[in-house]
């Protein structure tokens, strides 16, 4: 599903500010971690490729209504410059307040397919409506730094990332234009 609904800019800004405040509270309580065990793991994509985990962010909560959210995009101005991709992967941790404090966030695997330049976020979310509310706001922010038309997402209900990690299902492939 491509992102087509556009929240008002003031709604996006307010949601990001609330997320940042909530992320700060999670950090103070020690309820947000960055485990390293999955870094380097390659997940199979439904489009036949593979994406490598380069970071993980996890909140200390579980989902009652399990949902996977897969977001995909290509960065603008980066092209195939390896150094620029390395800088993005190293500095993207500063984006954590943009998502970790949103209602329903459980975890995120940060993924890259170096052969195509596509980045993915594989999120665990509590509830499809919360995941969709987040991704519509995220798309507004991503459009500032991505190749036009490359931001897309898929919401898969009733599945958790353990099934993707165990290779029982392939990583859903959002359509990229």
State the gist of this model.
The protein is α+β, with helices and mostly antiparallel strands and 177 residues long. Helix content is 29%, strand content 27%. The protein has 4 helices and 7 strands.
Protein traits:
alpha+beta, 177 residues, 4 helices, Alpha-Beta Plaits, single chain, 7 strands, globular, 27% strand
What does it look like?
The protein has 4 helices and 7 strands. The chain is α+β, with helices and mostly antiparallel strands and 177 residues long. Strands 1, 2, 3, 4, 5, 6 and 7 form a 7-stranded antiparallel β-sheet that branches. It starts with 8 loop residues before the first helix and ends in a 12-residue tail after the last helix.
The geometry reads as globular
Helix content: 25-40%
Structural class: alpha+beta
Can you tell me the residue ranges where pLDDT is under 50 for at least 5 consecutive residues? none
- Mean of the pLDDT scores? 83
From the N-terminal CA to the C-terminal CA, the straight-line distance is: 11 Å
Determine the strand fraction and express it as a percent band: 25-35%
Which second-level CATH architecture applies? 2-Layer Sandwich
CATH class: Alpha Beta
């Amino acid at each position: 599903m491509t992102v087509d609904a556009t929240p008002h800019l003031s709604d996006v800004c307010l949601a990001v500010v609330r997320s940042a405040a909530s992320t700060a509270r999670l950090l103070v309580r020690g309820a947000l971690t960055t485990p390293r065990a999955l870094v380097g793991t390659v997940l199979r994509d439904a489009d036949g490729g593979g994406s490598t985990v380069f970071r993980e962010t996890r909140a200390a909560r579980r989902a009652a209504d399990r949902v996977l959210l897969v977001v995909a995009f290509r960065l603008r101005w980066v092209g195939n410059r390896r150094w620029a991709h390395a800088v993005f992967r190293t500095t993207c941790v500063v984006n954590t307040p943009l998502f970790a404090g949103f209602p329903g966030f459980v975890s995120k695997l940060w993924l890259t397919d170096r052969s195509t330049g596509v980045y993915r976020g594989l999120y665990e979310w509590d509830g499809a409506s919360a995941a969709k509310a987040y991704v519509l706001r995220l798309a507004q922010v991503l459009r500032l730094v991505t190749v036009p038309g490359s931001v897309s997402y898929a919401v898969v209900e009733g599945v958790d990332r353990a099934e993707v990690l165990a290779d029982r299902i392939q990583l859903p492939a959002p359509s990229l234009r």
